[in-house]
Amino acid sequence: MTVPPDFNSANNQATQQASSLMPTYARQPIAFVRGQGSYLYTEDGTAYLDALTGIAVCGLGHAHPVVAQAISEQAGLLVHTSNLFEIPWQEAAGQLLTKVAGMQQVFFSNSGAEANEAAIKLARISGHKKGFGSPKIIVMDKSFHGRTLATLSATGNAKVQAGFAPLVEGFLRVPFGDVDAIKQLASQHDDIVAILVEPIQGEGGINTAPQGFEYLNQLRELCDQHDWLLMLDEIQTGNGRTGKYFAFQHTPITPDVLTTAKGLGNGFPVGACLVQGKAVNLFAAGNHGSTYGGTPLACRTVYTVIDCLEKEGAVENAAKMGNYLVEQFQQKLTQYQVTVRGFGLMIGIELPIACGELVARARDEKQLIINVTADKVVRLLPALNISQADADEIIARLVPLISDFIQSKT
Ligand SMILES: *Cc1c(COP(=O)(O)O)cnc(C)c1O
To answer: Which domains are seen in the chain, by residue range?
Structure first.
């Protein structure tokens, strides 16, 4: 069965009957019922080339046979016990994930926001251990950290926060890339405990700091100097997306706290908060928990995803295909005043004008799934194991769309 028994298609549903879902998303009028690799299919069998992968989630592509097999086998064995018991797959996934991350311990959550909640709690408990009654965390403009109350309070986007005051206290905000602003805060507050930052801002428009990854070195130095925790949100940039397993691995530094989710389960909902060095053992029994966090099913999936990424050379492929795509877009769009930014297969093409309408045009005219973020940035997050032929297909479908669009508007 590819759709529920009385499903009408998203189009009809919108007009013929009121949806029973809260309208938290402005949904596109299309439903996919199956996927394979870099392609999604509607019920009538139309194929769409997926350059979004559920927003950087399905790094191994859709319906990956090894991952699907692991999920179905584990579903037939044991889905859930409880963290009241030992969970061998959680140990195994933890071993593998800490190894590829170069971290020491992990807490498994069910989402990215929950991984960041764990990081925020770690920062606070580190402060309370130093005797600070109201510890502060430095966060960035244009950041995105999630939709729970603490993570939306940390987020640097007024739209995400609007309507939800009172926000969670204890965050100090600075411009992304501005080291002097942090030094100034350090001179004004003696109860700062951590910096929380995305190495590359995803929702913010695929931005690195003006000084590039040198920013992370500077933040590491400040954190060492002041005994703060450097906490990297790699929920979007992790799991091979930027051409290294984690984005910080493009630099010499290691964070104290690292969060990830999106690509970690290839679509299975799971997140992780990792620690090393001075952040190890900050939580004791009873300080944090999750009923679902780290189930045998979730952790066997994580284990299988990491194993497949490695065996298929998907991270190296992301680096190679990313360079190729960026080069091609730069070459082919050079006369249109676009800026192409790319780190592995996390690619942003910034246009001189707002381009939200390109999402529907790419879908309906080119059967290509893309996303636009920060109004003007076409965001591409294709599967990490994408083939050369499919990468060329993205270029062939997208370049004329963007060039025609800019020519028609300017
Ligand atoms: C998606 C995202 C989150 C939130 O993850 P959820 O799984 O949606 O809670 C947090 N931080 C970053 C950088 C993200 O891209």
So the answer is: 32-60+313-409 (3.90.1150.10), 65-311 (3.40.640.10)
